[in-house]
Amino acid sequence: MELTVFLISVMIISLSGVMAPGPLFAATIAEGRRNMFAGFIISAGHALVEIPIILALMFFGVAVATDTVKAVVGILGGLVLFYLAFLEVKNYGNVNEGKPGRSLITGIVMSSLNPYFIIWWLTVGFTLVMQSMEFGILGLILFIVAHEMCDFVWLGFVSITSNKTAKLWGTRAYRVLTLVSVSIFVIFGVYFLSTGILTLI
Question: What pTM did the predictor assign?
Answer without folding.
Answer: 0.74
